[in-house]
Amino acid sequence: MRQRPRRSLVVPALLCALLVLGGPPTLSRGAEGPEASAEVARLFEEASAATQRYEAGRRAVGVQKAKARKTERLLARERREITVLHNDLGRIARAQYRSGGDIPFTAQMLLSAEPEELMHGQRAVWQADLALNNAVGKSRRAEKKLAEGQRGASAQWHSLQARNVQLAQLKKSIASKLAQAQGELQDEADRSVTAGQCRGAVRLEQPKFHATRAWVPPVRRYELSAGFDSAGEHWAHRHTGQDFAVDIGTPVRAAGAGRVVSVSCGGAFGIEVVVRHPGGYYTQYAHLAAVTVEQGERLRTGQWLGQSGTTGNSTGPHLHFEVRLTRYLGSGVDPVKWFAERGVRL
Q1: For residues 41 and 27, is the Cβ–Cβ distance under 8 A?
Q2: Among candidates 346, 321, 329, which has minimal Cα distance to 243?
Q3: Residues in Cβ contact with 273 at an 8 Å cutoff, skipping those fewer than 6 apart
Q4: What percent of the chain has pLDDT over 90?
Q5: pLDDT higher than 70, residue 4
Q6: How many Å separate Cα 73 from the centre of its chain?
Q7: How far apart are CA 133 and CA 127, in angstroms?
Q8: Residue environment code for 249-276, b if the CB has 16+ CB neighbours within 10 A, otherwise e
Q9: Each residue's pLDDT tens digit, 227-272
Q10: For position 129, what pLDDT does the model report?
Q11: DSSP string, 252-307
């Protein structure tokens, strides 16, 4: 019996088993058909946006934390310099006391054997005293400014941390709703496959995508799992395509421009779409949870044609993708090499 993952995380190295792959919207329970497909698509977009906000916030926390630490180091250095200045001033004061102390300067001149030398020395003391006082004042102003900066940086750091906690909670909430919507989407797909009746194209709002190349990978973010011509206990013969490990509901796009020649929902491949491309090649997209196109429909490069799932003989969520010389099983070529020849590295 197939087990569905509890969390909406990309599962690594899944194999397809073939005979020969501001806040989140509220989720309505029991959503089926187009509603479930659209809900999964929306939540994928929200999860992506929430992740980007969280990562941006995490980086901002790091920057602000480093700024606060740097300001703290500058503040500590400024305080050490003030301490040195205070000690220097204390030594001068003690020297003044030993050379006359509290005796008025006029009396010191009358008692001094060399008044001119006394005046010269006293002037030097006054100048040193004034310089030290100026330095202490300047250092204290710098200390005050640094202390204010340090408090501001620390406050912003703590504020960013609190915001990131909220973003983490938002991510968790979206992930929970996404997992539920994925389950409902897959359940509906399983019912269609069991009945042998495809439920028709689900029309989802297509993203703004302009292909700069003739060919693109069938999914945007993925991990490659079972490769072409690999052997294993899951297949009666060798593996006929390339598997992309992705979550249930991941948008699947046309690898290149072409026309849909087949949409089916029974057999080992579960829900599948086959597209014919100019030049005679065909691509197959199997184990889908939903399709967004109809037979005979023309597709542009990168256009969504379905959502990934785990229908048919599948051990877990992934996309089984084939490049064929004909529309039929058994005429496949290695997709990795085929893409590489067209400048696309998987």
Answers
A1: no
A2: 321
A3: 260, 262, 263, 284, 285, 288, 291, 293, 305, 306
A4: 32
A5: no
A6: 32
A7: 10
A8: bbbbbbbbbbebeebbbbbbbbbbbbbb
A9: 887 765 554 467 889 999 999 999 999 999 999 999 998 888 999 9
A10: 65
A11: EE-SBSEEEEEEE--STT-EEEEEE-TTS-EEEEEEEEEE---TT-EE-TT-EEEE
Q: Are 252 and 219 in contact (CB under 8 A)?
A: yes
User: Reduced to 3 states, what is the DSSP secondary structure of residue 320?
Assistant: strand
- Cβ contacts of 330 within 8 Å, gap of 6 or more: 20, 240
**Tally of residues, the chain:** 346
CA-based nearest residue to 260, from 281, 277, 244: 277
Report d(CA 292, CA 252) in Å as an integer.
Answer: 9
pLDDT score at 64 = 78
**CA nearest 257: which of 219, 214, 291, 292?**
214
Q: CA-CA distance, 33 to 199, in Å (whole number)?
A: 8
- What would the two tokens of residue 17 be? 């088993």
Per-residue pLDDT of 48-67, as tens digits, reads: 888 888 888 888 878 877 88
The span from the CA of 135 to the CA of 82, in Å, is 8
Q: What does the block give as tokens for 282?
A: 């065909």
Q: Which helix (H) or strand (E) holds 47?
A: helix 34-99
Longest dimension (CA), the chain: 122
DSSP state of 309: B
**Amino acid residing at 298:** R
Q: What's the Rg (C-alpha) of the chain?
A: 37
